[in-house]
Design goal:
The protein is an alpha/beta fold. It contains 13 helices and 19 strands. It folds into two domains: about 230 residues, Zn peptidases (Aminopeptidase), CATH 3.40.630.10; about 150 residues, Alpha-Beta Plaits, CATH 3.30.70. The chain starts with a helix and ends with a helix. The structure holds zinc ion (ZN).
């Protein structure tokens, strides 16, 4: 091949490229332009939300709900589809409906508006002012969960602006009282306005999401189940008397002996569909015995020896594989110089979703082995059945996630804690907890000082929401 032919070929290739360039560049420009506008709007909205103090102590969710409602109406949403509701004037909720074609049932999108308290003196920046620094957005609620809540608002506004009509309605609920349970918005809506939020399933952005490992999003966690919270008091009563005249029966000793017996109570180990899926996914990130044990637990039925080894390997694995009960409070006695008339312990249990609370009562009674120790539930258990791992939905989420972060596996998981999804699941509505804000699992500052999210993660999440809501 001579020089001239190489040059000719180059010229031909360049000409072709120039011919194609304007088309491709134009489409890319439009996409980049829309994303830029989305980022500008997303930043501005997050900044507005952070600046509204929605703590239970000194703040209120109402101004945040009203500010967003005005925005939706100004954008052209029918006022009837934008409702600020709730009994408590300081704790109102916002419900917005983006109307679809009626080809599927509505999907509920959920975030809470309230945040936990933050003291200016504890922070290096003002917690109620959005601050960008070193690639992060700082502010109370950036991570829990105004960042993801703002992301849902931005997505609905953009879909509406572009004239996009989804297959079915999207219902956005931004609620109060998640953090302290006072005037909980989801409970209120279920009790008073169930039709307003009736949906096939819900996406709650209050957890989960792409986990950054070794510098990039490596797995997208979706919470499909939560353990059930149930506390008990154990009480021993005694006539008491003067402490100079001790009697053989003593309320404090009697309770202490019962607690000692209780310390060896272990609930049976077992995996459910969610934890099996979780360990199957996690096994791919480990090697050796740990990986083999995870695979053996992921198999149905699980291998009992592998279950035992895995549970013993960390408090977290133990919590995922069994119901747990642990004493958390202790009280007793009346005076330094009096025999105790009462001794009381509080036991906090976290039940596997399919555990029968009556069975837990019976197990405690048997372990305490003393009918004089009175057992009482502090509050009724809120049973919360796991949501099914829906293969169609999971494939849709995986496709959108891969378009942003490359091939990324989805991992269902069961939370040892609790979110508003327990109320929805208990009411019969499946709930999936995840969002699109990629985060480093070792840098989770929810509820803590200098709460932050990566700026790049926030902007990517806006695109993730937009693409996902176009698909569902
Ligand atoms: Zn939260």
């Amino acid at each position: 091949m001579n020089r001239t032919s190489i040059t000719l070929r180059l010229v031909a290739a360049l000409a072709l490229l120039l011919l194609l360039l304007p088309l491709g560049a134009h489409a890319a420009d439009a996409g980049a332009h829309a994303q830029n506008a989305q980022n500008v709007q997303g930043r501005e909205l997050l900044s507005q939300l952070i600046a509204i103090d929605t703590t239970s102590e000194h703040g209120s969710t109402t101004p945040a709900a009203e500010m967003l409602a005005r925005r939706f109406v100004a954008a052209g949403f029918a006022p009837a589809d934008v409702q600020v509701v709730g009994d408590d004037p300081k704790r109102r909720n916002l419900v917005v409906r983006l109307r679809g074609r009626g080809e599927r049932k509505p999907i509920l999108l959920l975030a809470h508006l309230d945040v936990v308290e933050a003291l200016r003196t504890d922070w290096h920046v003002d917690p109620f002012k959005l601050t960008e620094q070193g690639g992060y957005f700082y502010g109370r609620g950036t991570m829990d969960i105004k960042g993801a809540g703002a992301g849902l608002v931005i997505a609905l506004l953009r879909l509406h602006r572009e004239g996009f009509t989804p297959k079915g309605d999207y219902i956005l609920a931004l609620t109060a009282g998640e953090e302290d349970g006072v005037a909980n918005g989801v409970q209120w809506l279920l009790a008073h306005r169930p039709k307003l939020i009736d949906a096939a399933y819900s996406i709650n952005v209050d957890g989960g999401g792409p986990e950054i490992r070794r510098g990039k999003p490596a797995v997208l966690s979706i919470e499909t189940a939560e353990k059930v919270y149930l506390s008990y008091t154990l009480t021993v009563r005694n006539p008491g008397g003067h402490s100079s005249l001790p009697t053989p029966d003593n309320a404090i000793y009697q309770l202490a002996r019962g607690l000692d017996r209780l310390s060896s109570l272990k609930f049976p180990l077992r995996a459910n569909a969610t934890t099996r899926g979780y360990y199957a996914q996690l096994a791919t990130l480990y090697s050796g015995t740990a990986a083999a044990d995870m695979r053996a637990v992921a198999h149905d039925p699980s291998d009992p020896a592998a279950l035992a080894r895995l549970a013993a390997s960390s408090p977290y694995n133990n919590a995922l594989l069994r119901t747990t009960c642990v004493p958390t409070l202790l009280a007793g006695g009346d005076a330094e110089n009096a025999l105790p008339q009462m001794a009381r312990a509080t036991i906090n249990c976290r039940l596997l979703p399919d555990e029968d609370p009556d069975h837990v009562d019976a197990m405690l009674k048997q372990a305490l082995a003393d009918p004089a120790i009175a057992i009482a539930r502090v509050a009724p258990a809120q049973p919360s059945p796991p949501s099914p791992v829906d293969p169609v939905l999971f494939a849709q989420i995986a496709a959108v996630a891969s378009s942003l972060w490359g091939p990324i596996p989805l991992s269902p998981y069961m939370s040892a804690g609790a979110s508003d999804s327990i109320f929805l699941r208990a009411a019969g509505m499946p709930s999936y907890v995840f969002n699109g804000i990629a985060y480093d699992v070792d840098d989770d500052r929810s509820h803590g000082q200098d709460e932050r999210i990566l700026v790049s993660s926030y902007y990517q999440s806006l695109e993730f929401n937009y693409r996902l809501l176009k698909d569902l």
